[in-house]
Amino acid sequence: MKSRSLKQLFEPYTDVIIFMVTLLAANYFWKFTVSGDENGDLVTWFGLDITAPFEFMACHIASVVYWLVSLFRDTAVMTDPHTIHFASGSGTTIIWGCTALKQSFIWFWLIATVRPWNFQLSTINFQLSKLWYIPLGWVACYLFNILRIFLITLFIEHHPEWFHLLHDYIFKYLFYAMLFGLWVIFVEKIRVSPSSN
Questions:
Q1: What would the pLDDT profile of 94-116 be if each residue is shown by its tens digit?
Q2: DSSP letter string, 80-106
Q3: Taking the CB of residue 126, how many other CB atoms lie within 10 A of it?
Q4: pLDDT digits (tens, 9 = 90+) for 8-40
Q5: What is the rounded distance in angstroms from the CA atom of residue 183 to the CA atom of residue 168?
Q6: What is the CA radius of gyration of the chain?
Q7: Which pTM value belongs to this model?
């Protein structure tokens, strides 16, 4: 009787609990298995060199951000494939950790673990919806990351002291808030309620 009432008590929060556990597990799995230096010269996963995709994405993001910044400022120069400097002396370097590949990895698991987990005929359409919603989330991660780095770069031209606040707090948590919002849309609007299966 007690276990049944406890289950009933937590049932409305099960999806959010799964979200939080998945977010933490994916985040810590990434932290403990993927490592790299600040320059991005070497990124490893379980000791294997996986630098190439990070290097490609860092260079790509830097060039896109530089192009966007150039639309608004004529004071920016790209001093190497990863670095944008302003005439004011401030600048930013896009490293391997700025590629949003970690957030894309976490996003995959956030959607992959949405209930129901069975592959019965009644849930096949829902499971297939994950196949288009996961890539849609990856596009959102990419676009948000570009916007994030672009805005940080613009702000620090005249306020370099804002970098840590913007990078480590405001935009970091906005990124995860965006992922949560996309997850809520998926859970509330796209899937069939697990209780009906």
A1: 999 999 999 999 999 999 999 87
A2: ETTEEEETTS-EEE--GGGSSHHHHHH
A3: 19
A4: 777 888 999 999 999 999 999 999 999 987 766
A5: 23
A6: 20
A7: 0.88
